[in-house]
């Protein structure tokens, strides 16, 4: 018997969210945080007097880049010597060192002392925040949770996620794959309105991971129970919205160097953090606009910076990543032994799934 409500937590690379099943409404309800937002930045910051989590941490990131930790999902369950960790470290303003058993340790200044944290400990702080959000909303203690992970998370990464939940004081009832959660959410909505079996491709591109699944959804009218069958899965635990930012940041750094001949901007973590935040905003604008501007007052050495990027240029900068997305879709279809014409619906999940939407539309024009 489960004691009290169980929550579902999407522990994302860049944002996390928490939901609960409301039997009175017969549906799942996504819980807003104290700012009224349905998603909370997966970000933890340390200062001389405080530890900040979520929106509060994100809001001071540009002023305190070396002590503001994000992207920790890219460290969890990995070794410091992993090539992906070494590549990410070049892009992060905060410091990561090798700890016991080659585990990556994040180094910060907290309350005027140097502190080291494992990825699980930082993730646990985010999970504890999600638990607090749920408890404030439901007005009761919450002990039980289901947490989602990317399909291609290995045993070490899954166990590290469970450990993070335990540190946060949660009983992790189940770890489920993100596209399976998406299929459930999609199927629960659709299942009562039809009695035909549908084949759905779930394309989930989040802040740091890509998951693709082909799922059969059978309404099971004859047995009064819907049946979900995952036919095939593909994905990349290191491909997401953050990766689409990197080429844009490099593009504008090159532009800044050409205009102002100041090469030391590359060693200015605050300037690079401001630029990354501006690129993130521009990327979001390009989901619905043909071009976006990047404007930053006093970016570096008191120089105001202004740049423009078009959707076409953005796609050109990220063409390798678009190709990777398509390769994973094609692999998933191949593993399911299906042709794209056999897909009834395509479900796009995650904020970053809007980025390659035009290419997905070309692949599945009738879905």
From TrEMBL:
<dbReference type="GO" id="GO:0140662">
    <property type="term" value="F:ATP-dependent protein folding chaperone"/>
</dbReference>
<dbReference type="Pfam" id="PF00012">
    <property type="entry name" value="HSP70"/>
</dbReference>
<dbReference type="InterPro" id="IPR013126">
    <property type="entry name" value="Hsp_70_fam"/>
</dbReference>
<keyword id="KW-0067">ATP-binding</keyword>
<dbReference type="GO" id="GO:0042026">
    <property type="term" value="P:protein refolding"/>
</dbReference>
<dbReference type="GO" id="GO:0031072">
    <property type="term" value="F:heat shock protein binding"/>
</dbReference>
<dbReference type="GO" id="GO:0005524">
    <property type="term" value="F:ATP binding"/>
</dbReference>
<dbReference type="InterPro" id="IPR018181">
    <property type="entry name" value="Heat_shock_70_CS"/>
</dbReference>
<protein>
    <recommendedName>
        <fullName>Heat shock protein 70</fullName>
    </recommendedName>
</protein>
<dbReference type="GO" id="GO:0005737">
    <property type="term" value="C:cytoplasm"/>
</dbReference>
<dbReference type="GO" id="GO:0016887">
    <property type="term" value="F:ATP hydrolysis activity"/>
</dbReference>
<dbReference type="GO" id="GO:0044183">
    <property type="term" value="F:protein folding chaperone"/>
</dbReference>
<dbReference type="InterPro" id="IPR043129">
    <property type="entry name" value="ATPase_NBD"/>
</dbReference>
<keyword id="KW-0547">Nucleotide-binding</keyword>
């Amino acid at each position: 018997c489960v004691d009290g409500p169980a929550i579902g937590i999407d522990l994302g690379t860049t944002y996390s969210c928490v939901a609960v099943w409301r039997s009175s409404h017969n549906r799942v309800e996504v819980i807003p945080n104290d700012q009224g937002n349905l998603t909370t930045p997966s970000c933890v910051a340390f200062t001389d007097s405080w530890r900040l989590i979520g929106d509060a941490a994100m809001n001071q990131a540009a002023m305190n880049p070396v002590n503001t930790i994000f992207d920790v999902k890219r460290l969890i369950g990995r070794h410091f010597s992993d090539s992906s960790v070494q590549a990410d470290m070049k892009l992060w303003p905060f410091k990561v060192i090798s700890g016991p058993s080659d585990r990556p340790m994040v180094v910060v200044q907290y309350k005027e002392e140097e502190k080291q944290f494992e990825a699980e400990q930082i993730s646990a702080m985010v999970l504890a925040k999600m638990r607090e959000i749920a408890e404030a909303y439901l007005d009761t203690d919450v002990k039980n949770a289901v947490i989602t992970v990317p399909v291609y998370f290995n045993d070490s990464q899954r166990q590290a996620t469970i450990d993070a939940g335990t540190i946060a004081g949660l009983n992790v009832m189940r770890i489920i794959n993100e596209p399976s959660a998406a299929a459930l959410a999609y199927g629960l909505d659709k299942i009562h309105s039809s009695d035909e079996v549908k084949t759905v491709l779930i394309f989930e591109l989040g802040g740091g991971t890509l998951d693709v699944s082909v799922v059969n959804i059978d309404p099971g009218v004859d047995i009064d129970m819907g049946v979900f069958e995952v036919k095939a899965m593909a994905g990349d635990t290191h491909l997401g919205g953050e990766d689409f930012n990197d080429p844009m940041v490099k593009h504008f750094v090159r532009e800044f160097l050409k205009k102002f001949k100041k090469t030391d901007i590359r060693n200015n973590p605050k300037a690079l953090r401001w630029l990354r935040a501006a690129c993130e905003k521009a990327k979001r604008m390009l989901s619905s606009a043909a071009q976006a501007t990047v404007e930053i007052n006093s970016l570096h050495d008191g120089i105001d910076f202004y740049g423009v990027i078009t959707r076409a240029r953005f796609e050109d900068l990220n063409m390798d990543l678009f190709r990777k997305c398509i390769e994973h879709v094609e692999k998933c279809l191949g593993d399911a032994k299906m042709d794209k014409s056999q897909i009834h619906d395509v479900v796009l999940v995650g904020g970053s799934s809007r980025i390659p939407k035009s290419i997905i539309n070309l692949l599945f024009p009738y879905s």
